[in-house]
Specification:
Blueprint: H1 4-15, H2 17-37, H3 44-65, H4 70-85, H5 92-97, H6 101-116, E1 122-130, E2 133-142, H7 143-150, H8 157-168, E3 175-178, E4 190-196
Antiparallel strand pairs: 1-2, 2-4, 3-4
Helix pairs in contact: 1-2, 1-4, 2-3, 3-4, 3-7, 4-8
């Protein structure tokens, strides 16, 4: 299961190695159960998000929620998510050193949106696409929110949203990420905005 080794390592710091190993086993079992009864997607991008993002996070949250109050479970999930997702920004220091960092990021962003966020999962609209800014809104559909809601854990969506803030905040100061609203926090859209920052 994705991220489980990282989560077990982090849990061992606060719970001890034995308790962390037992908890990791329960998370894995929960993931296996969710995968067996979860939705089936033929689109590879939707399947990738489901199996490597949504279900691992949901399995972790459900397992922790079974033994701690929801607020404590959410806080611990956020800490564990941060440990796992920080590695996704490993290439950002290289991107920031390139002379045309924003132009390259803008091109890569459009490619990733087309390839990895299909309309079947996200209701996305491009708001701005200029040499200094690329911005888009996610309005009526978000695969993460919709699946987590179907599984009775809509509150977990906001924790996934926070990972965007954590990851893309590391692009500063060359590329400035801002987002004032998210569906996961109860707003009417997610307003993603990436702008050229300091040279």
């Amino acid at each position: 299961m994705p991220h489980l080794a990282v989560w077990q390592r982090e849990l061992a710091k606060t719970r001890g190695a034995v308790a962390a190993a037992l908890l990791a086993g329960r998370v894995q079992a929960c993931y296996d159960e969710l995968r067996a009864r979860g939705p089936r997607f033929t689109h590879p991008a939707l399947r990738q998000h489901l199996l490597t993002g949504i279900l691992p996070g949901l399995a972790l949250y459900q397992t922790l929620r079974a033994e701690t109050p929801p607020e404590e479970a959410l806080a611990e999930v956020e800490t564990l998510f941060a440990a796992a997702y920080t590695g996704q920004s490993a290439l950002f220091p290289l991107v920031k050193r390139l002379p045309a960092s924003f132009a390259l990021f803008r091109a890569a962003c459009k490619w990733v949106l087309q390839r990895s966020f299909p309309s079947a999962g996200w209701g996305m609209a491009l708001v701005e696409d200029t040499p200094d800014c690329i911005a888009f809104d996610v309005r009526d559909r978000c695969l993460y929110r919709d699946i987590l809601t179907a599984f009775g854990a809509p509150e977990l969506t906001a924790v996934f949203c926070k990972m965007d803030d954590l990851i893309y905040g590391q692009l500063a100061p060359q590329i400035i990420f801002t987002r004032t609203k998210t569906l996961g926090r109860g707003d009417d859209c997610c307003n993603f905005r990436y702008c050229r920052g300091a040279a």
